[in-house]
Design goal:
CATH architecture of the largest domain: 3-Layer(aba) Sandwich
Distance between the termini: 187 Å
Order of helices and strands: HHEEEHEEHEHEHEHEHEHHHHEEEHH
Strand content: 15-25%
Number of domains: 4
Strand order of the largest sheet: 1-2-3-5-4
Helix content: 40-55%
CATH class of the largest domain: Alpha Beta
Shape: rod-shaped
CATH topology of the largest domain: Rossmann fold
Radius of gyration: 68 Å
Structural class: alpha/beta
């Protein structure tokens, strides 16, 4: 163990040496920083009062139930962190203990920081996932559908890996005529994220592709980590072309899987999702052609039947047909009308004859035929129905059935027995 150097000031006769505050702090700094135990030590505690300074340095306090220690992690060390320290997070901090002379405080100069109970990669994954999800990068409503028949498929992956061989083989087998444009990219290592972003930008600007497959073969979490970088996730989100994420195996989940428009379990599965099978399409088209042909035949037959039905209806409502119908009906009704007219005329004729007969019976002329006569004034032609109308010497016309007698009244006799006068004709009248 290092010994504290004494005697910075010579002792005086009055007592032991006297030290300034700075000198005591410096003595402690030499002792603490000279102690091998404090040169590389790991401290476990909970982060509090965390501050990421604009200079890039991180300042925080590690505490437990009884005590706390100030910590600083300079930019040269925290640049390698995969996660973002935050208050309340329990961590293992590894570094050296020293004394900050200006404040006279001892603190831990952290070189390595790891979450307690969870690896730094797992924590970084969850932190970025929560952040991007809150921003809406995973929203299903923004995801685009993959084109059914892409003309050109873009692929971002390593040009030497097994993934590219599988993708190209399956694409050409399923759709022989599809164009495949590969944008080579590093898919592992510190420079991989920037390489992937550059490949995506190149495809979208110059590739004229309809869909992009982004992925690589399987590997450890560290191997797949470029696809968990925020830089790559935002590039996938901003890409105007639909992207299929195909990173690792089916059990591997990356941030790109959440941001992409479609996730495939493997690169081979991405190729199957990107294009349909041409043979299946041709078979489907043949079946559809057959069904369409049958449907057209049924449609034409239906239309012909409909036209025939409408023709019959039109014929039934045709003026020519109606005229023919009316003419035939007229021919049928004409005899009936003539017969009805004849019956009516005959009936009227009989009625007229009866009326004439009654008129004849009531006519004065018919009375003359039975031996009676009508007397009238020869001058005024007025009928004489009473002897009071006649005077001696008066001219009287006597109307008989076969002529007129012009006589002169010689004598007027009032009263008389008419029944005796008519007796000779009474029998005849009774017979009538």
């Amino acid at each position: 163990m290092s010994q504290i150097p004494l005697g910075i000031e010579e002792p005086t006769a009055a007592g032991p040496p006297v030290y300034s505050v700075s000198e005591v702090t410096r003595l402690l700094k030499r002792y603490v920083e000279g102690e091998p135990l404090f040169r590389y030590i790991t401290v476990c505690g909970e982060i509090s009062n965390f501050k990421h300074h604009s200079s890039g340095h991180m300042y925080f306090v590690l505490k437990d139930a009884q005590s706390s220690i100030r910590c600083v992690m300079f930019r040269s060390h925290n640049g390698r962190l995969r996660f973002l320290p935050e208050n309340g997070l329990e961590v293992y901090a590894t570094g050296s203990i020293g004394i900050y002379e200006t404040g006279g405080l001892y603190q831990l100069y952290v070189e390595y920081l790891e979450p307690r109970g969870m690896g730094d990669l797992h924590l970084a994954f969850q932190q970025l996932k929560d952040k991007l999800q809150e921003e809406g990068l995973f929203d299903p409503a923004r995801k685009r559908s993959i084109p059914f028949l892409p003309r050109r498929v873009g692929v971002v992956t390593s040009p030497t890996g097994a993934a590219i061989r599988d993708i190209v083989s399956i694409l050409t087998r399923r759709m022989p005529g599809v164009d495949i444009l590969v944008a080579p990219a590093q898919v592992q290592g510190r420079e991989a994220a920037a390489s992937i972003v550059a490949a995506l930008e190149a495809l979208t600007q110059w590739g004229e592709v309809d869909v992009i497959i982004l992925g690589r073969g399987g590997g450890s979490l560290e191997d797949l980590w470029p696809f968990n970088e925020e830089l790559v996730a935002r590039a996938v989100y901003a890409c105007p072309v639909p992207i299929i994420s195909a990173v690792g195996h089916e059990t591997d989940i990356t941030i790109c899987d959440f941001v992409a428009d479609l996730r495939a379990p493997t690169p081979s599965g991405a190729a199957e999702l990107a294009v349909p099978v041409t043979a299946d399409l041709q078979a489907g088209l043949g079946e559809m052609e057959t069904r369409l042909h049958r449907a057209l035949l049924r449609g034409c037959q239906h239309k012909r039947e409909r036209i025939t039905h409408l023709g019959r209806m039109l014929k039934s409502y045709s003026p020519d047909d109606m005229i023919r119908q009316k003419r035939q009906r007229l021919d049928e009704l004409t005899p009936r009308l003539l017969s009805a007219v004849q019956r009516h005329v005959a009936s009227e004729k009989r009625e007229l004859e009866m009326v004439v007969q009654r008129l004849d019976n009531l006519s004065p002329l018919s009375v003359l035929t039975r031996g009676y006569a009508i007397a009238r004034d020869s001058v005024s032609m007025a009928p004489i129905v009473s002897v009071t109308q006649a005077n001696t010497g008066m001219g009287v016309d006597v109307l008989l059935q076969d002529g007129i007698l012009q006589v002169e009244v010689r004598h007027v006799e009032k009263g008389g027995n008419h029944r005796q006068a008519l007796a000779p004709n009474a029998g005849e009248e009774g017979e009538d």
